[in-house]
Amino acid sequence: QQQVKQSPQSLIVQKGGISIINCAYENTAFDYFPWYQQFPGKGPALLIAIRPDVSEKKEGRFTISFNKSAKQFSLHIMDSQPGDSATYFCAALYRDDKIIFGKGTRLHILP
Amino acid sequence: DAGITQSPRHKVTETGTPVTLRCHQTENHRYMYWYRQDPGHGLRLIHYSYGVKDTDKGEVSDGYSVSRSKTEDFLLTLESATSSQTSVYFCAISVGDRRADEQFFGPGTRLTVL
């Protein structure tokens, strides 16, 4: 099954709070899991990525948690700021050249 | 922006007319991609290229064709545009060790088919 299921579709978080976006997959051949951030009117931009041999990767306020047995991964944004308001896409890569995107989560951080 | 430009940035056309979108890169990356983005569907791959004259289909390739005669240019053609092809189209290049790792996206082309 070549799908990546992303939830929630939209999310509202208070400034300073933790934003959590979840993704699930079924194909165990996926071996690279990036997250992309997209601001209105712009193309997506790679935010952070993880490979399945690690359970967590942190870059600044952004953390990916990866659960290989559950086939789930999530993006955590700590101390969320209004500037983090954007649409976030998870994705999964397999066979070197195929990348499947989730349907996106629109995040809004309240000031 | 990894030196990616798309043209035109906006286009309105009528059903049945041919449309060509251009993606241009300045850094000689081998892999290039065309996606469409629609509300509720995220990003869906249309076609991709792994070198000059080497292309392959993505998940939503029907109604689209591509060409890559030079490393720096990847063209997407709608032979006969339909209203269902109204979308935002993004070009991307891959700069990672593997073909689809670390994709960089262009600014997008908003296409409206009336």
Could you explain how this protein is built, in words?
The complex is a heterodimer of chains A (111) and B (114). In chain A, 32% of the residues are buried. Chain A has 111 residues and is mostly beta strands. In chain A, strand 9 (86-94) and strand 10 form a beta hairpin. Chain A has strands at 4-7, 10-14, 19-25, 33-38, 45-50, 56-59, 62-67, 72-77, 86-94, 98-101, 105-110. In chain A, the strands form two sheets. In chain A, strands 2, 4, 5, 9, 10 and 11 form a six-stranded mixed sheet that branches. Chain A has a five-stranded antiparallel sheet with strand order 1-3-8-7-6, with no helix packed on it. The model of chain A has no long low-confidence stretch (mean pLDDT 93). Chain A starts with a strand and ends with a strand. Helices cover 0% and strands 57% of the residues of chain A. Chain B is globular, with a radius of gyration of 13 Å. Chain B contains no helices and eleven strands. Classes of the chains: A mainly beta (111), B mainly beta (114).
Residue share in helix of chain A: under 10%
Structural class of chain A: mainly beta
Helix percent band of chain B? under 10%
By oligomeric state, this entry counts as heterodimer
- In what range is the share of β-strand residues of chain B? over 45%
Give the chain pair forming the largest contact, with residue counts.
A-B, 21 and 24 residues
General form of chain B: globular
Q: Strand tally of chain A, please?
A: 11
Shape of chain A: globular
What portion of residues of chain A belong to β-strands?
A: over 45%
Given the helix and strand composition of chain B, which structural class is it?
A: mainly beta
Write down how many β-strands of chain B occur, each being a DSSP E stretch of 2 or more residues. 11
Q: Give unreliable regions of chain B as ranges.
A: none
For the largest beta-sheet of chain A, the strand count, sense and barrel status come to:
6 strands, mixed
Write down the overall mean pLDDT of chain A: 93
- Low-confidence segments of chain A, given as residue ranges, are none
